[in-house]
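note to self — DONT lose this again. spent like an hour looking for the file last time. sequence + predicted structure for the chain T wanted, 491 res
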Amino acid sequence: MAKLKVFISSVQAEFSVERRMLADYLSMDALFRKYFSVFVFEDLPAQDRKADDLYLEEVKNCDVFIGLLGKQFGFEFKDGTSPTEREFDCATAHNKYRLIFLTNAKSAERHHGVNRLIGKMSDNVVYGKFSSPSELLSDVYTSMINYLISIGKIRVEPFDKTINTEASLQDMSEEKVKWFVEKARAERAFPITINASTEKVLTHLNLCQGKSISNAAILLFGKQPQRFFNSSEIKCAHFHGTKVEKPIPFYQVYKGNIFDLIDQSVNFVLSKIDYAVGSRKAGPQAPTAYEIPPEVIEEAIVNAIAHRDYDSNGSVQVMLFADRLEIRNPGSLPPALSLDKLTKDHSSFPFNPLIAEALYLTKYIERMGTGIQDMITRCAEAGLPAPSFKMEDTFVVVIKRKKYAAFEQIGGAIGGAIGGAIGGAILTERQLEIVALMKENNQITYRKIAKVLKINDSAVLKHIKALKLNGTIERIGGTRGYWLIKTIKSD
């Protein structure tokens, strides 16, 4: 990022201390040094200090002009102007952002040229007065912060509400906007009609101002949100063990708008965890259950997306291990919440309120701060421990996995083997692991299965033979074919 250039102009002898103080402050302050580089005449080689044309060239190239005026007028050219006056005139002619600060002196104490210059400047800019170097520093600080806000370098409002100067209505997906309206009308009685224009819908949602588009609009409805925000993606990974190890068996990076990111990443997890189908003994509809309730997975992922820090270069990460599911997001808890308060009754403090509102209208979330407690309740109902939360370099949600949890939920019996594991078929723990690997990759070889499970090839072949005999699996297409996982009726 190219830094903004600041030019400090003054009578050299009168303000040598203040000029150096400002230059050092803007160059060393943690915030300002990120955005500004400063020019003062002392920084030029000695032989160039009288090169007035060079100073004017620096003014033309600057972004911010700071002028300090006191009692002295300084060197006068033949036309009665001074170097500071000429520099100010140059800054005005080239539309530079100008900040003028006057010492708190009486008019009679000032050189007549200074009074004339003040009159000229007052027609162009509003100036401030100072009585001490510390007061000058305070005034400059406030003015520079306001300047950074005015050009969008720093914000005083949420990220999602900030207008994105690079985007327009043409970057919005009309198809996604219409989908949103239809769903919001069905879920929350959204008042806008399905045939309303994209601009009308976004305006109603406070996502645009006239033709100007907010960051939230891009993330929710953009055709290519990642063109504006590279990190607005979800990285999903599945590890067979309990820690991060390469090569990663299954890895996927999802891109798109927020609604698509949620749906894709939730489906990624659901495709990798256990899913049980019971018998129809109790009725015409066979009971089914996922190892982790889908509502818990969705709530954790939605929270990560809605509350993340989009200024961060990090992405949301969804990592499935043998013993747990972890969702990480580059964000932090709001000041009003702590990890302890998070699991108790608390109000909702959305980090990105406009994004949260759109997710509420489509019923991805509620607005009562009850999401975490719902996760805890649903995990308990599924026989799982309560989710845990921690702050590391990211905010982390951990949902514990439990072997056979899906089968227990549909009434399966456990005792060395699983009753009702797949439509009533009785499978050993090892056979369940083999079926899970085939579900993940239906073209996996028995040698690859043996390597993943760390057992010998002959043992895998015996389990595969048993699975074929009880009708759990079928091989389609010979050596170049694939595994078909079958559902067997038990009644």
